[in-house]
Amino acid sequence: MAATTLHASLSTAAVGLSHNGGIGTQCQRRSATSALPAVKLTTYEGLGKASRLTADVVPRVSTRKNLKCGAVSSPDSSSKTLDIRAHCQPLVGNKAPDFEAKAVFDQEFIEVKLSDYQAQGKYVVLFFYPLDFTFVCPTEITAFSDRYAEFAALNTEVLGVSVDSVFSHLAWIQTERKSGGLGDLSYPLVSDITKDIARQYNVLIEEEGVALRGLFIIDTEGVIQHATINNLAIGRSVDETLRTLQAVQYVQENPDEVCPAGWKPGEKSMKPDPKGSKEYFAAI
Questions:
Q1: Which of 253, 257, 283 has the alpha carbon at shortest distance from 270?
Q2: CA 103, 106, 110: angle at the middle one, nearest 5?
Q3: pLDDT tens digits for 113-138?
Q4: What are the backbone angles phi and psi of residue 123, rounded to the nearest 5°?
Q5: 176-220: pLDDT as tens digits
Q6: Catalytic residue among 27, 69, 88, 137
Q7: Which keywords has UniProt assigned to this entry (predicted)?
Q8: DSSP alpha helices (H): ranges in 219-283?
Q9: Which pLDDT value is given to residue 284?
Q10: pLDDT of residue 231
């Protein structure tokens, strides 16, 4: 890991949000320059070129008019411009972008279509990872595989996605764990070699061409109920994914209840009203 410190005046970008009976958004930009403290940017050297940002680059809001909401931006070294793009529509609470792609499962090449799992009435845990044959990634992939039976018991399929080809996936699966490989997995690894899936889920780092560690819980109606995105150096927790999945399923089965912080099955939930909350806090 490497850190680059930028001493710069940063232009600010304002994002205005409007809400009127649903999800409505309104993106605005305003130009206002103010001196800010040094900014420390963390990069991932394992991907090759660490970053095009250097200490003499002054980030500022791009003046280009065609900013796209939800895209991950990158610095332009010629104009020394850093695009700031707002996620104008959140993924959580909306339909998961459907996709069809090649995958590897049971050491065979297969086709995977996300909406097929909805047709089967299943939940899906969809997680992205940067690259095959790396370091944090196999710890996550094998951890989810080793706990796959717990997800299956919750009527849930697990899908792992990276920008690698199915041939790379297969080679990694055929490599023993003690040699940095995966061994056999209990769920498919999807190939997003065009990077379209990562773009749809707003996790692609365009500059490096890899995905951040995004994880999405998608319900049986195809709606994203939970999303987390970790930076490249930080692995995810299978325990927390299972706990959150159980909370999602509980509130869907009990729509007049909500789950407080750290809730686990068997613990007290809460009614989302003044009386219900008082009863909850009086009991704990």
A1: 257
A2: 30
A3: 999 999 999 999 999 999 999 999 99
A4: -80, 160
A5: 999 999 999 999 999 999 999 999 999 999 999 999 999 999 999
A6: 137
A7: Antioxidant, Disulfide bond, Oxidoreductase
A8: 238-253, 274-283
A9: 87
A10: 97
Q: Which of 100, 87, 128 is nearest to 228 (CA)?
A: 128
In single-letter form, the type of residue at position 257 comes to E
Fold entry, domain 100-235: Glutaredoxin (3.40.30)
Tokens, residue 267: 């613990």
Which pLDDT band holds residue 12 (cuts at 50, 70, 90)? very low
Compare 118 and 7 and report the one with higher pLDDT: 118
| CB hemisphere CA count around 276 (13 angstroms) | 11
Instruction: Retrieve residue 82's tokens.
Output: 């850093």
Q: Give the position of tokens 């299978």.
A: 238
The DSSP call for residue 130 is S
Write down the domain spans for the chain: 2-82, 100-235
Which two tokens mark 93? 């609470």
- 178: CB partners within 8 A, 6+ apart: none
pTM for the structure as a whole = 0.71
